[in-house]
């Protein structure tokens, strides 16, 4: 199962190359199978169009935001390693990962990294803060026409007011972490919520 540099013939899959989060060999094999089934161009990478063919993302109001999370800024293709890195945010935090060596880097599925992933879904212009307009845009994506603009504005204003600690009328990542200090982090998946933690 070669995959690393976007080609299937250059390097073989090893557990060492995906050590950024704990998965079994069978899980890697299943994910690789899913990756190759999505790779319609058969070039070892996925495009945005490949992701848009996934029915669950196509109906998800945040589907485009989730798809964008797979692509670093300026990139239009993702290889298997990038695919795995993004999916790592959705893995549950296991007890042995919580008690990891404090000097080691934080796993991608840590609470902080899950919060950063969720924060980036709201930070549409990638300026490291969530403005009222960005919050309104994401809320509109999630609820459609089920709530009036006035109600959405009220929700956005209240959210900014409660989270904004430095008075800049936006939510920074540090402010988001404090607000996100909840039992679970949820991401809307079209007809239900996914629990990130």
Automatic annotation (TrEMBL):
<keyword id="KW-0106">Calcium</keyword>
<protein>
    <submittedName>
        <fullName>Calcineurin like EF-hand protein 1</fullName>
    </submittedName>
</protein>
<keyword id="KW-0472">Membrane</keyword>
<keyword id="KW-0963">Cytoplasm</keyword>
<keyword id="KW-0813">Transport</keyword>
<keyword id="KW-0539">Nucleus</keyword>
<dbReference type="GO" id="GO:0005509">
    <property type="term" value="F:calcium ion binding"/>
</dbReference>
<dbReference type="InterPro" id="IPR002048">
    <property type="entry name" value="EF_hand_dom"/>
</dbReference>
<dbReference type="InterPro" id="IPR051875">
    <property type="entry name" value="Calcineurin_B_homologous"/>
</dbReference>
<feature type="domain" description="EF-hand">
    <location>
        <begin position="110"/>
        <end position="145"/>
    </location>
</feature>
<dbReference type="GO" id="GO:0005737">
    <property type="term" value="C:cytoplasm"/>
</dbReference>
<keyword id="KW-0597">Phosphoprotein</keyword>
<keyword id="KW-0479">Metal-binding</keyword>
<dbReference type="Pfam" id="PF13499">
    <property type="entry name" value="EF-hand_7"/>
</dbReference>
<keyword id="KW-0449">Lipoprotein</keyword>
<dbReference type="InterPro" id="IPR011992">
    <property type="entry name" value="EF-hand-dom_pair"/>
</dbReference>
<comment type="similarity">
    <text>Belongs to the calcineurin regulatory subunit family. CHP subfamily.</text>
</comment>
<dbReference type="GO" id="GO:0005634">
    <property type="term" value="C:nucleus"/>
</dbReference>
<feature type="domain" description="EF-hand">
    <location>
        <begin position="26"/>
        <end position="61"/>
    </location>
</feature>
<feature type="domain" description="EF-hand">
    <location>
        <begin position="151"/>
        <end position="186"/>
    </location>
</feature>
<keyword id="KW-1003">Cell membrane</keyword>
<dbReference type="GO" id="GO:0015031">
    <property type="term" value="P:protein transport"/>
</dbReference>
<keyword id="KW-0677">Repeat</keyword>
<dbReference type="InterPro" id="IPR018247">
    <property type="entry name" value="EF_Hand_1_Ca_BS"/>
</dbReference>
<keyword id="KW-0653">Protein transport</keyword>
<keyword id="KW-0519">Myristate</keyword>
<dbReference type="GO" id="GO:0005886">
    <property type="term" value="C:plasma membrane"/>
</dbReference>
